[in-house]
Specification:
Helix content: 55-70%
Number of helices: 4
CATH topology: Rossmann fold
CATH class: Alpha Beta
CATH architecture: 3-Layer(aba) Sandwich
Number of strands: 2
Strand order of the largest sheet: 1-2
Distance between the termini: 39 Å
Radius of gyration: 15 Å
Strand content: 5-15%
CATH superfamily: NAD(P)-binding Rossmann-like Domain
Shape: globular
Number of domains: 1
């Protein structure tokens, strides 16, 4: 999906905890003339989520789309969403 979007002109940001894999993918994109960067992060951590967005905006000026392909344990998702749920039900 990223390659198709990159060839359509999207700039690509890949974030993961495993920087070896991310850097290999970014190198493949760059070898195909796709503008891409790698950012280390854990999508289950609030600070890392904000860091990915901040670094993407710093590099590219804006974020037009997000594609989340991360699998997160259901318990972690519940913890992440709890503050939002509390605001909705109150």
């Amino acid at each position: 999906m990223g390659e198709r979007l990159g060839k359509a002109g999207f700039k690509i940001v890949i974030s993961d905890m495993n920087m070896d894999l991310v850097n290999k993918r970014v190198d493949k994109f760059k070898n195909n003339n796709i503008d891409a960067i790698a950012i280390e992060g854990d999508v289950s951590k609030h600070d890392d989520q904000f860091n990915v967005v901040a670094e993407a905006v710093n590099k590219f000026g804006s974020v037009d789309a997000f594609i989340n392909n991360a699998g997160i344990d259901q318990q972690v998702c519940g913890i992440v969403l709890m503050p939002v749920w509390s605001n909705i039900k109150d």
